[in-house]
Amino acid sequence: xxxxxxxxxxxxxxxxxxxxxxxxxxxxxxxxxxxxxxxxxxxxxxxxxxxxxxxxxxxxxxxxxxxxxxxxxxxxxxxxxxxxxxxxxxxxxxxxxxxxxxxxxxxxxxxxxxxxxxxxxxxxxxxxxxxxxxxxxxxxxxxxxxxxxxxxxxxxxxxxxxxxxxxxxxxxxxxxxxxxxxxxxxxxxxxxxxxxxxxxxxxxxxxxxxxxxxxxxxxxxxxxxxxxxxxxxxxxxxxxxxxxxxxxxxxxxxxxxxxxxxxxxxxxxxxxxxxxxxxxxxxxxxxxxxxxxxxxxxxxxxxxxxxxxxxxxxxxxxxxxxxxxxxxxxxxxxxxxxxxxxxxxxxxxxxxxxxxxxxxxxxxxxxxxxxxxxxxxxxxxxxxxxxxxxxxxxxxxxxxxxxxxxxxxxxxxxxxxxxxxxxxxxxxxxxxxx
Length: 434
Fold this sequence. Notes:
Layout: H1 8-18, H2 28-37, E1 45-49, H3 54-67, E2 72-75, E3 87-89, E4 92-93, H4 96-110, H5 117-131, E5 136-140, E6 157-160, H6 168-171, H7 175-182, E7 191-194, H8 201-210, E8 213-216, E9 222-225, E10 230-233, E11 238-242, H9 252-265, H10 274-283, E12 291-293, E13 295-296, E14 298-302, H11 307-318, E15 326-331, H12 338-345, E16 351-355, H13 365-374, E17 384-388, H14 391-401, E18 407-412, H15 414-421, E19 428-429
Parallel strand pairs: 1-5, 1-6, 2-5, 6-7, 7-8, 13-19, 14-18, 15-16, 15-18, 16-17
Antiparallel strand pairs: 2-3, 3-4, 9-10, 10-11, 12-14
């Protein structure tokens, strides 16, 4: 007789073993179980899709809405360390115990239907959010859009961030195909904000086909700025002299511009003040997105794991100033464009610390080292290459070699950054310090 799961870890193991594939791009089963649960949201829903920038966009939406006094539920993914990070209410991660009755409800409702772990957990978290006293729900899409479990719920406003080449085995081999999948979260007659400055034609065509209220960057909203401040203009509203968001990075103004467009589009149901905008941008936090950790040497954490996001990381690192030595800790999935990511970072890196990750589809440290070797020399001098069994060991080894003035960059998969955060934010103290 099968035991009923009693803890969150047991439920996650149960979900992981249920369905024959981890990723199953279809919506029918999720929609059916949602209907059996009678699951729907009574408050506005903003869904956010895109290749890069989803997490930052959701975090800024959440921060501004909280500063405006709204009660906010946020479904984020993936998590860095704890699964509970995926469900936030009023800016705080929920307790594992709060999720258990919703896992039980999904299990009872699904009956003969098997669900992937992503589908099952999405329904459980959505049920928790639907039962909470909220004013706004923010849903972050995982893979694609059209067939992602989040798309079982109709968005009152869809936001599509930058679109780049990733997950091509599921979504298509070019930006037009991938854009078509992301566009699946748009709904007829409802606002769809696209913050990619070069939106694929497929996104625009789909918006026109279904009759969505399309907000395009450069047409319906714009921004400009200098080193001190930036300005934003939408269809009717303007914000001048804004401070830069607390999230660092060259692409954050694109994300911030899309956030302000979403709030203007939703102004009749979610009015916000200029002060909420300023405070929200100033207070927003999102671990692992060009996160600079205080200490010596300088530590940078970034979940850049495709060529587009790695190019942004490299640009951000280049703008940080001079460091005598940059040591990189890197781990990623085998299906990523590893050569392109390593080649883009190579001119900035003096020592590589490649790491295994605890997933079958992750590239091993040995495989990463082989890809690096195949690139030949891309930097100014000889580069050291090391292999490690896990991210924490890789960071420890990099730190043991580092001087206080050096820089360590941990990037790649969420499992890489999460692996160095599992015991909290590292406190770095280089060997030559006092």
